[in-house]
């Protein structure tokens, strides 16, 4: 039983990171109907910003940790907004496939310029937050794991608030529902899309810091695998649906952890992706997605 | 003389000197085409520490050879290629080294899986190949052009099983194997065989893949199995993360590994979590034998005070073994150099006297070290069993 609970905790802390990245995929899909493949590399840049910013603040302090987190989120928001401005906006109105291929191009650009600027060897991420282990009976929780779950939950609540309770959030939902109608009622689509990219990228930046805190070896290609998993999580929960992305991330992280802890650990990715296929067979729009007939 | 004209004069003199030096060099190099040593290293990526260290050893060896007038009256140059620690790159690089660069020999400090890609290519091209730290038995199976300058995992796995059973007095040891690295899979197999023969027990074997970063699930299962120790025959990037996450989960049992752990990054990434862990390796710079002391001194003088780990002296020895073979063969012709390397007997290396046996392996002693206060400290030496 205690092993089960421990694995559940491990799974939730891994899933919370997937969820944070998945939110960015899902939000961009919601407003623009395309998958921003460069998102996983924004996540990578987030942890490198944390790496350099972490050298400027004293190690293991709360204010230091939060200022690094904030720096990474701001840096990534700027990066995400400039990617949108430079690479995607000129293609607005062209077929989705063009934008999709551009996104793959931007992703490769970030990965390999990362290898030039940061070097290809793995770096050790500094311990920016104070770390401690907590013991609950036979259950062990590290402060990093708690931080991941708490920060991820707070950010998701904040996102929920922004999307449903603020003016810009309402505008986002309007653009997502029907861009042309949104424009007719006076919404500036460019501003809303730019904001969406900024918000999604900031979450990826936070994800990058949380990931690096738990797995303190970072390199320019580190985004590839978590990015792929988060993408799967977004589809699993129903792409375009914010709550779905969070649910998908947690589910995927938990399944992966339980498989890793069993005798079939080498099949963990195969089983995780197999579940995706099965769910999509029965619910093509994902767990929380609504299946809509394409308007002609 | 004014200051400006003085410096102008100095510049002219320096320019003339450079000109003459260039001329002199081009004369000798026209007379003697350099001998090329091909080198396949993981200079970047996950195993970059191995490549960086091995390359320094080879640079030091080649600089010494050239200072003594080169080989067969010709200077030696290194053709370095980076496999980025990625599967599939080493075969391509080996092809390029053999066909385009026409190197005399190839040296590589890369891991066994990578050397297994390069081996068959170089065997077909009849280019002698010395793997400096690839310990898996399969590496030299590629053919008679493939050699190694280190012990094999049959020996290393047994050494660690014996150490855990007899020195650490452990009875139940769990295994955490990298399923995608051939050396790791075989080490676990040999460890299991030896450890159970000594009356030990393996309660659980968990697996991961190269590049994984989350081991909490496997470690939680290991903790639940009631193991008294954990053997992790993987590479340093993963090993350091394994130790950290094990300590985070409150799994405070002895953790030990093999030569794949040897890199400064083990302590850099692992921090306090790797304190008190053990691993087997090829050499320690704490050895007080005169040739080791001299080597450490030379190495530190050349590479700004850095203390060599075992990858550097193994690569250094391998470069000198290749050089000695070319001298004895009197040519850079592949088959003749191959025969000369195969005939290496009692070569006085930094990592011990080296004899290449019939299976093209070098039998060498293993050293067990531990991490104490962030430093690598010598524990014991296990002598090679003579074949």
Describe this structure in words.
The complex is a heterodimer of chains A (296) and B (387). With 296 residues, chain A is mainly alpha-helical. Chain A has a domain at 19-123 and 140-230. Chain A is 71% helix and 4% strand. Chain A is built from eleven helices and four strands; from the N terminus they run ααααβββααααβααα. Chain A has helices spanning 2-32, 39-53, 62-88, 96-118, 143-165, 167-177, 179-184, 189-214, 224-237, 242-260, 268-282, and strands at 123-124, 133-136, 139-142, 217-218. A two-stranded antiparallel sheet of chain A has the order 1-4. Chain A has a two-stranded antiparallel ribbon with strand order 2-3. In chain A, α2 (39-53) crosses α8 (189-214), α3 crosses α8 (189-214) and α9 (224-237) crosses α10. Mean pLDDT of chain B is 86; it is low at 1-8 and 19-30. In chain B, α8 (236-248) runs parallel beside α9. Helix content of chain B is 45%, strand content 17%. Chain B has two domains: 32-151 and 287-356, Response regulator (Rossmann fold); 154-281 and 369-382, Rossmann fold (3-Layer(aba) Sandwich), CATH 3.40.50. Chain B has helices at residues 3-31, 48-67, 89-99, 112-124, 153-167, 182-197, 216-224, 236-248, 264-270, 290-302, 311-329, 334-342, and strands spanning 35-41, 76-82, 105-108, 129-131, 146-148, 173-178, 205-208, 229-232, 255-257, 278-281, 347-349, 352-354, 366-372, 375-382. Chain B is built from twelve helices and 14 strands. Chain B has 387 residues and is of the alpha/beta class. Classes of the chains: A mainly alpha (296), B alpha/beta (387). Chain A binds chain B through residues 2-3, 6-7, 10-11, 14, 115, 119-122, 124, 127, 133, 135, 140, 142, 144-145, 214-217, 219, 225, 256-262, 265-266, and chain B through 44-46, 48-49, 84, 179, 206-209, 211, 213-218, 220-221, 223-224, 237, 240-241, 244, 248-250, 265, 268-269, 271.
